[in-house]
Specification:
two-stranded parallel ribbon, 19% strand, alpha/beta, Protocatechuate 4,5-dioxygenase, Chain B, 30% helix, six-stranded mixed sheet
């Protein structure tokens, strides 16, 4: 019998976080010990969106270096994860039941929104992994995807939404504290999630005035919606880490459904 898994939203930051001493690195490295041992991992990353929801296949999963302009050391890193035929079939069945059109991408690997946090949480890459694309469209589509894959938690599968709590690359800074608008958005997000107001995430009329500044596109916000919907929208989430990098890049992380052990 599998342990019931929580679902997670992780802010994966910039790729060079792996080469830094950012506090998020230590949090991710300690996260595996705070979770039940998963039978498998399903990741929805900000860096893969498709109108026909995609899922990776079994076999070796390539490490995709989908970024440019960073230190050469990052491009030499590999995360040798493997998929699993049973996991792919299980996800396909859930999507089919939910009426979500999808296809399997046999040759696609893991983008950096998936492999960077996983390389810190489960560095040995011994747990089967599947990546699921974000659906194109509004946040309602992200919620439906999360609801569709919610049964995975009962199968011992760790569902992770990987994005960013604040993500506007045009407003990053090399140094300095986060701006008031970024701090304000983080505060609103925590209050919304921990207050259990899932519908407020989906309704633009209930967003903060600076929502569009914090998220000029929805790709890094939608994985949070997926993670919450997968963990159960009837329960509030809990923020277990917060910080900023590059000034205004938010690193907030949340857990839904079951809680984390320890600190």
């Amino acid at each position: 019998m599998h342990a019931l898994m929580p679902t997670l939203f992780l802010s994966h930051g910039a790729p060079d976080m792996l080469l830094s001493e950012d506090p998020t690195v230590a949090v991710f490295r300690g996260l595996g010990a705070r979770l039940p041992r998963p039978s498998a991992i399903a990741v929805v990353s900000a860096h893969w969106t498709a109108s026909l929801v995609g899922v990776t296949g079994p076999g070796d999963l390539a490490t995709i270096h989908d970024f440019g302009g960073f230190p050469e050391a990052l491009y030499r890193l590999r995360y040798p994860a493997r998929g699993d035929a049973g996991l792919t079939a299980s996800v396909e069945s859930l999507l089919e039941t939910a009426g979500i059109a999808h296809r399997v991408h046999e040759s696609r690997g893991l983008d950096h929104g998936a492999w960077i946090p996983l390389s810190l949480i489960y560095p040995n890459a011994e747990i089967p992994v599947i990546q699921i694309s974000l659906p194109a469209g509004d946040l309602g589509a992200a919620a439906r995807l999360g609801e569709a894959v919610a049964p995975l938690s009962g199968q011992g599968v760790l569902v992770i939404g990987s994005g960013g709590s604040v993500h506007n690359l045009r407003l990053l800074k090399r140094a300095g504290a986060p701006d008031p608008w970024a701090l304000g958005f983080e505060s609103w997000l925590r209050e919304t999630v921990q207050g259990g107001s899932f519908d407020a995430l989906l309704d633009p009329g209930r967003h903060r005035d600076d929502f569009a500044r914090a998220h000029p596109s929805l790709d890094h916000f939608a994985p949070l919606v997926v993670a919450w919907a997968a963990g159960g929208t009837g329960r509030p989430g809990s923020r277990f880490h917060q910080g900023f990098t590059y000034g205004n890049l938010g690193m907030g992380c949340y857990v839904f459904g079951e809680g984390l052990s320890g600190r």
